[in-house]
Amino acid sequence: MAESTTIVRNDSGIANEVLRRNVPLVVDSCHPNCVQLADKLYSKRMIPDKAWRRAKDTMSGHTIDQRISDMISVVRDSIRTDGSMFRTFTDILRTEDTLPHNRLADVLDKELI
Question: Considering the domain boundaries, does residue 83 fall inside one?
Fold first, then answer.
């Protein structure tokens, strides 16, 4: 029987690696509205309550670049815990309905398939 080369979407290690490789694209795409995006991630339960409270406390004094870095760290932690969160992340990006967010979602989905 031949092995399938399709990557299973909920494999947290692979999903996390795809996100790690694309951090510069995530930063570029999420730069202008990372706080609003983080709010949406939290509302979809992608960011746990404890991590969200900690991030909110530290984000207020951070620069936009630090906030994006914090958001990416929390997203990667969620994906490491549950690979299906990768699909949630790309779905949320698509709801932002901006070209950079849609492009990022397309790139991430394409690499994972």
Answer: yes
Measured distance CA(21)–CA(36) in Å, rounded: 23
Its pTM stands at 0.64
**Domain membership flag for residue 95:** yes
The mean pLDDT of 73-78, rounded to a whole number, is 77
56: pLDDT confidence band, cut at 50, 70 and 90?
low
2 belongs to a structural domain? no
Q: How far is CA 33 from CA 15, 47, 83, 100, in A?
A: 23, 17, 24, 11
Number of domains in the chain: 1
Alpha helices, H only, the chain: 12-21, 23-30, 34-43, 49-59, 64-81, 85-95, 99-112
pLDDT at residue 92, as a whole number? 80
Q: Report yes or no on 65 lying in a domain.
A: yes
